[in-house]
Amino acid sequence: MRALSLVCSLNASPTPSSSHLLAEQIMTELDDLGVQGEVVRVADFDVRPGVETDMGDGDQWPRLRERVLEADILVLATPIWLGHPSSICQRVLERLDAELSETDDEGRMLTYDKVAAVAVVGNEDGAHKVSADLFQGLNDVGFSLAPGAVTYWVGEAQQGTDYQDLEKTPDAVRKTTRTLAVNAVHLARRLKEHPYPPG
């Protein structure tokens, strides 16, 4: 089984990123469960605005889309900005919208039988709202969600501490990250054995 985390930090590599750190921690948990994974920073690619699988003119979303379709589990990792997912995360959802018209021989979206999960970081309130927004979008474009499909950390409001600045991972975050991984793998394995029927 394979997993892919799309990190939607506004900063390209190699700038340190709390979203990237949490995504890597999820991949460590998935690796312990026998799932191979990779973490990709979306800002490292030229992903054009639009709702097609390929917007042309050097658009690099097709390269990322190929990795999405190869994965059994997709993790979207985003910071909170002004109470919302990052603009890059919103762009990923907009590009995934193209999957609504991409189907297999049985008329099912290519994202069916794939599991999605979410990671959210920030130093302001909003993790539940952000995850709810992403859950709806991911489900709309064909992904399934296991129970506990989000792990998050939010620091004290109006303070400057980032997740990556913490001396150690808080127990609550560690536990929710583990739950996300275990449940996502369980569901992905079930769907691999028993795919959804044609509609």
From TrEMBL:
Name of the protein this chain belongs to: NADPH-dependent oxidoreductase
Residue ranges of domain NADPH-dependent FMN reductase-like in the record: 8-148
InterPro entries the record matches: Flavoprotein-like_sf (IPR029039), FMN_Rdtase-like_dom (IPR005025)
Gene Ontology MF term list: oxidoreductase activity
Pfam families named among the record's database cross-references: FMN_red (PF03358)
UniProt xrefs under SUPFAM superfamilies: Flavoproteins
